[in-house]
Amino acid sequence: MTKELELIGRARAKGDSIAISSTTGGRTYSDLLDRSARIASSLLQSHDDLKEARIAFLATDGYDYASIQWGIWRAGGVVVPLCLSAADPELEYTLTNSSASQVVVTQELRSKLATLCERLDLTLSIAEEMGDAPARALPKAGIDRRAMILYTSGTTSKPKGVVSTHANIQAQIETLVDAWEWQASDRIPLFLPLHHIHGIINVLSCALWSGATIEAFPSFKIDEILSRIAAGAYTVFMAVPTIYVKLIQALNALSDAEREPIIRGFADLRLMISGSAALPASVHEQWTALTGQKLLERYGMTEIGMALSNPFHGERRPRAVGQPLPHVDVRLKSESGEIIANENEPGEIQVRGPGVFNKYWNLPDITAESFDEGWFRTDDMAVIETGYYRIMGRLSVDIIKSGGYKLSALEIEATLLKHPEIRECAVIGMPDDTWGEAVSAAVVLEDASDLGLEELREWCRDRLSTYKIPKKLLILESLPRNAMGKVTKPPLRDLF
Hints:
Elements: H1 6-12, E1 18-22, E2 25-28, H2 29-44, E3 54-58, H3 62-74, E4 78-81, H4 88-97, E5 102-105, H5 110-120, E6 123-126, H6 127-130, E7 146-151, E8 161-165, H7 166-179, E9 187-190, H8 197-210, E10 213-216, H9 222-230, E11 236-239, H10 241-252, H11 256-268, E12 271-274, H12 281-291, E13 296-301, E14 305-309, E15 323-324, E16 329-333, E17 347-352, E18 359-360, H13 364-369, E19 371-372, E20 375-385, E21 388-394, E22 399-402, E23 405-408, H14 409-416, E24 422-432, E25 436-445, H15 453-464, E26 473-479, E27 493-494
Parallel strand pairs: 1-10, 3-4, 3-5, 5-6, 9-10, 11-12, 12-13, 25-26
Antiparallel strand pairs: 1-2, 7-8, 8-18, 13-14, 14-15, 16-17, 17-20, 19-20, 20-21, 22-23, 24-25, 26-27
């Protein structure tokens, strides 16, 4: 079906409403439509349609980003967002693997890509100059066309290009707009990376689909954002767990008088969401105690958009990611191949629905292996507890097989973080002749802590016995800081 993308059509109805604001001023939906049309015209040149040519781009400002993204789509191209913090080898991999035909960049970022594009013989177009192109008739991009390639983190292999169609993207947006009750009156800050599905879909696309207003920041600027929160600038807030930890630390460092208007600003928000990583229950509880807000935690991936969410109305349970979102099917499958029907039995999360991606770019075998009779295999293990899914971790990384048990490194980390003198920790499985894998932890203590190993051992015995951990827990590195603030690294020692 070939017609104007619904995202574009919906923007026309918003006209002079503010779409994206920043320190440089506010831009309307009409501004966004006009500039993206001119960028599309510049990309097309003498062609009638880019016919799914891959166009890579790099921009910081939300208005620049959205204008370029929409321009590529309106010209019939596939967007390949680049990572602002990526080094040349990573950028080169993305450009060559996607077979990008050209790169669009803002003037301020030109130097980051100029030499690389010259070496790769790629056309480098400057967004500010493209805006001067005369508008022309644009192609109608069918909803089943490929629209975007996002690259996975590549923790276990080279990053894979995740190809999504316009239909996939629209389904992901509609699911969240429905579940989280997005409204045209919503106002949201955008400081998340825009090469990642969290920032692109959950914030930018959902807001623009709904006719809401985005306030864009080039990065997470905590003082500016807290000032805007105190001013009542937003109705919705989305962040990752690390940001909530930093916000808690910042608020606790303020005087009561400084803290009060900020706390009131957070309390007045209609919705606060955490995602992209597991949210420790301790952080969830601290945030509620501090602001009165119960964070909504959800679960998703680059390949599927969002699949599970705590409810907008109802219990938002710490350590859980809720239930399947509208129009998304989710099941658990055991290692033996059985579909799990009972609660409290762990299995791999498998997902199907209109938001599930099209394929991995140029990887047909891996694409085929990633599906089980139409269900996408996430490689994440979960368990259902009284109706809510709880993520145990990645099968390849976070599940420790010890003494016949499958232990969640994420759960053990969450428990360790409840200790008032532990600032950070990481839990992994270490090869062990007796247990298969021994649970091992690296711990960073608070600056003023004098927590001793024996005291920590005793605390662990009391708190971690419920996880059926074998009587051997190793501490890889207890990392207290000395008087000069330098981290010290003692040798490997048994924690039990």
